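To whoever is covering the structure queue this week,

Two jobs came back overnight. Logging them here so there's a record in the thread.

Job A:
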Amino acid sequence: MRDPNVWENPLEFKPERFLTSSSSGQEEERKRQALKYLPFGSGRRGCPASSLAYMIVGTTIGMMVQCFDWSIKGEKVNMDECFKEFTRAMAYPLTFTPVTRISTFDLENSLNLQIIIMIIDIVDL
């Protein structure tokens, strides 16, 4: 952070160096960045169960990381992005293959995995 090759006067406190200028193109980009993640709305009309959803999504991702090994096709992932109305998405979908890490018997009897499967079934509806 204090590299003089990167920053002018690196030892001085200047938080404005991280702010973008207010030119029209950059201002619009800043607004897009602010709206890039609003899955549950906000304010008075926001989803009342958003904290529950965040907890379930976090638990689901944790269980999927714990129970499976993940492999991707190819050696490199293309991380290009594209803008859709209010979201930022990957320009090219990520395709991966889950491989079970624990035995099938343990998976079938795992209450957490049964919850994950129920959530996936609900999302597919």
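Job B:
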Amino acid sequence: MTKQQLTFLDLFSGVGGFRLGLEKAGHRCIGFCEIDAKARESYKAIHNTENEVEMHDITTISDEFVRGIGRVDIIAGGFPCQAFSVAGKRKGFRDTRGTLFFEIARFAHILQPKYLFLENVKGLLNHDSGATFETILRTLDELGYNVEWQVLNSKNYVPQNRERVFIIGRLRGASTNQIFPITGEESQINFKSAKINSKGRKQQVVGNVNPSARGMNGNVFSSDAISPTITCNNGEGSKIMVPTQSKTTQVEKRIIVEGLLGKKFRSSSAVVSVNGLSPTLTTMGGGGQEPKILVREATKEGYSEAGPGDSINFSFPNSKKRRGRVGKKYAHTLLTGDQQAVVTEDFQIRRLTPMECWRLQAFPDEAFLAAKFGSREIAKTIIENKLDHYHCEYEQKMSDSSLYKQAGNSVTVAVIYDIAKRF
């Protein structure tokens, strides 16, 4: 709990990931803005928004209405990464017109909160050769804010590899705290707190079952590794591998043997490409004979070795310049359209459920259930009575496709809390 309770405005709110982290740190929401109707529906099911300011399309909100919001200490929100039409050498507030960042700047200009708390993809730092980020910094400086920023990875809080840049603006002349840098053990949370599955283990990709091998909807996750970045995927949920007790197993799709290093080693020396079916991997008893596959890539050796628990990147399968396809024990960062896999000992598969995706963003189960059933009361009843939410008497109000999308569009609550408790 913080020493003082600050008020905040939740812009581009989605289902309220910023809000949950800020409220956990002791702060109070006075209003929110979200253009997507389904996300607003989930937001209002999860949070008590009575007597709060509700806004939809931020570009239609008048300056007069913004002034009427009154005093607020924090403006928070994640905004799209958009290029600015820079006129001359000004590179300031006026050059951001027509972008959603301009709306954040407009609200800040009118309301003058102590803090701006913003989130974006890591690529914002290099977008348009750095011109985009430079314009943001100049704009915030012009509005009277000292700015600090840091890239944080969700994998230090939950089992998901998700790098995002967080930007803090501190109003000059106001009493504010320096927030960054967040370093070392102070930013880490035990993976088991994320409750990804019944054993609380981390997630990792094992393959892609789409015919095209593209899209998160075809990705398959291990039940015992780090998950990739959760993204908006049009309702096609991720899959998760379920181990079986058979001694011989097979990857479903997307790997093909190109040759052997030696006849005697068979699957332990199979060289594979990034297209087609896997060879059968047989469980072995150690001594260097454990299942290994060699993934073709543009290195001096011509391949990288992958074993159980390693991830494989299948993007641009025909590229002759691609390297770094094998990730040791961590999945590569996954975005829509990426192709990720991992080598495991067993290859039965299932989807990651919507609830597991929300857990990867550190949302409490009660929040997910409130969104799913459209009611905080129903969510509490299900949890208190330990009901199976898949087979209960209550009607599901939010589709799985929307729930997947909402998880992918959100921020990681645990990261927000770690920052917000420092205000």
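Note for Job B: The domain at 7-192+408-420 is CATH 3.40.50.150 (Rossmann fold).

Please reply-all if you pick these up so we don't duplicate work.
Q.
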